[in-house]
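HOLO CASE FILE
Compound: zinc ion
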Amino acid sequence: MAKIKLTAKVDSEILVVGLGLANKKLQIESGAAQLDSASLLATLNAMGATAKADEVIKLPGKATKLVVFTGLGEIKSSYDPEVLRRAAGAAARDLNGNKSATFSLPHKSVVELAAIAEGAALGAYTFVEFLGSSKQEQKAPLELITLISKFSDTAQAKTAIKRAEIIAEQTYLVRDLINTPPSHLTPDSFSQKMKKLATKYGVKAEIINDVTLKKSGYGGIIGVGQGSANPPRLFHVSYSPAKAKKRYAFVGKGITFDTGGLALKPANGMEAMKSDMSGAAAVIAAVFAIAQLKLPIAVDGWAPLAENMVSDNATRPSDVITIYGGKTVEVLNPDAEGRLVLADALIKAAEVGKRAGGLDGIIDVATLTGAQVVALGTRTSAVMTNNEEFSNQFLHAAQLAGEAFWPMPLPVELRASLDSPIADIANIGDRMGGMLVAGLFLKEFIDPQTPWLHLDIAGPAYNEKQPHGYTTVGGTGISLRSLVQLAELASSQA
Ligand code: BES
Ligand code: ZN
Ligand code: ZN
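Model generated. Tokens follow.
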């Protein structure tokens, strides 16, 4: 992963600067770096540069081999950090195959500098594991990102850079896990990989295997996983610093591949389903990041992992399963599997949280419904809750982190559609408002006293279209930054 360093002068052959518009005129925003602006502007005007977000233009420079202009839109006296994050990311994405680049983008605060560092590092991500060696070289991401800043010598800037590296490292992990094909990522291999990393980060980890899951009554995880030759797991990490100010549990949907089971998905709806473990990857990596940042917040991360396959042993539509703790579910649609594995894990997470003195919040993260994508599109995720205050706190964190989340209701009148004549609840209800129905299903497995958030990230977890800003193609890492930011906000509260 790219190293990030603060510097006082341009120290590589590539200089990245901003390009903005003031009164419809192009203007270079190069921060503290000196440039031959007049002649560069003449060229940019002649080329028809627009300075819009995601426009990246490379020109030969005088002092450096290349000057890279990244669009900032309207010139501002102070920029929204997300504008800077995206501009830095778009430039970094365009620099694959180069070793290093110096970024000199405008910023008035360390928060803005941190956004530039984060965006540059996130944009520099590539996934090359399954490419031949010559292609790997072509696509190799930047190894070194240097940043020119007037804050270079301050302790705050150094801390911000360290944090950006941690965020990037963990986002890379989430993206790698999502991008890894299901031939190479199973419930067991996910668990083994993450257990090794947990040791590296000094976080406790436990793998609950299929035999134990069955014996202990995890009917959701077993029911979803039983059609696969790759047996399910429940993976658990725990970071528990002394004198923790708060204790949270994060629970992420970990379907390593979702065929839909006997409600088989059509081929073109199935391709992207290696990303159905995005929630699990995000919550575990968030715990790692919180541990690396040494935040005074205790967090447990839970990843119920299963492969939803078709076989003579797969769960049939109309089968009844028993969730951990005893509630029965009539599985009318085996493609609504995420809620089943989450139900087991939510009950277990609450049980373990209670033993540790109670949870201040429980958050599940899941690529749960196609209805989420219909409602909010591919770049905005949904938040559902039983606690307005907790939700508002999260939305504030998401805003700071530059992740788009939007609050959604859990209308009581939809709950009846989940009634089953033969079990405590059915796994599907009204198709209309399907995202909310899924949220209402999960709510049945939440203690009403515990503040709870349900994040549906079905669309934003996986970018099947064009890259943009610091968002590359494939796994995005969505929700990791918001979860970490939430823990940071909680750390700084009394
Ligand atoms: N993993 C899917 C949801 C999904 C769809 C994620 C598109 C990302 C992109 C989930 O398991 C699923 O199939 N849900 C069903 C639920 C339905 C049967 C109630 C859906 O949304 O169609
Ligand atoms: Zn499904
Ligand atoms: Zn799924």
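CASE NOTES: DSSP finds 15 helices and 21 strands in the chain. The first helix runs from residue 37 to 47.
CLOSED: yes
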